[in-house]
Structure formats: C-alpha cells, structure tokens
Write a structure and sequence with these properties.
The chain is of the alpha/beta class. It contains 6 helices and 7 strands; from the N terminus they run αβαβαββαβααββ. The chain has a 5-stranded parallel beta sheet, with helices on both faces. A two-stranded antiparallel ribbon has the order 6-7. Strand 2, helix 3 and strand 3 form a beta-alpha-beta unit. Helix 1 crosses helix 5 and helix 2 crosses helix 5. The radius of gyration is 16 Å and the shape is globular. The two termini are about 30 Å apart. The C terminus is likely disordered.
Length: about 170
Amino acid sequence: MSTPNTHYGAEKIGRMLSGCKSIFFIGIGGINMSSLAHISHLRGYRTGGSDRTETALTRSLADCGIEIFYSHDAFHVAGYDAVVYTVAISPENPEYKAARERGIPCISRADYLGYVMTGYRRRIGVRNARKEHLHLNVRSCVYGGRRRPDGHLRRRACRDGRSVPHRR
C-alpha cells in the first residue's frame, strides 16, 4: 500500500514552510525527487534525504553538499523542519512515521512540485521523457544547447557556483 498524496496547494505549503530552514526527502534517489532536492538546496534550504540504494543521482547530490542516507531510519529526520515524500513509500516507512509523530510537516512530491513551480514565471513541463527527440530538443532549448553528443547535459552548477559533471 502506498502513502497518499497531500492536496494542500501552493499557498498552504508556503505557510507550512514559512520559517523552515531544512527539508528532508524520502526516496531522494529518483529523478523527480533528486531534482526537487537540488532546487531546494539551491534555494538555501539545508537538504537531506534517504533512499535504499546509491546511484549516480545520489552521488551527484552528495557532491553538492546534500546529506544522503542509504537506509530508512527514524533518526534521519531529526533536525529537519519538513519532509517531502514519494507516494511509493509505505505508510510504515520509519522516517515518514517519525516525522508525523513529531509534528513535522509532510508534503507529497506532487504537491511540493506544484509549490516549487509557482516560483517561476516561465514553466516548461516535459511529459514522457522517453520520447528522446522531443526531450533532447526541449533540454537543448532550455539549457542553451550545452549537451554532449548523446544529448546529456555536460555539467550542472552547484549552489556554491562550482560545476560538477552530470552523471548517468
């Protein structure tokens, strides 16, 4: 059984995150969650998260200074002001349960994504990224054509301005 989506909306999430200095991401290893964690980190939040396995995405986040755990433990959410979770987790996930028991605001990935998008004047959504030509063309347009011959972006900037390799 999966954990339900929240339906707070951007305005309520803004109030929930008012004064928030840190966000923890349960299931940080996927492309959506890792992107949201990276954006949160760039916005100045202390950011951390957990996933079951180490991947190129989690290593890349760690290279930027994001705290990554490769297990799920209630201890991990200690010191975080909010939790963003993927609905793929079980309601019995120890981090999710601990956050709820401690009164830490828990926001689903979809709801948090909607909140994050309100901060951008121009928004682009790409559906079905497996349609490689569309995906590569949109990325090329958005990122100014900085891509390798295989279409992957060469580098991405971390918060401190340094550039780290984009890993597959």
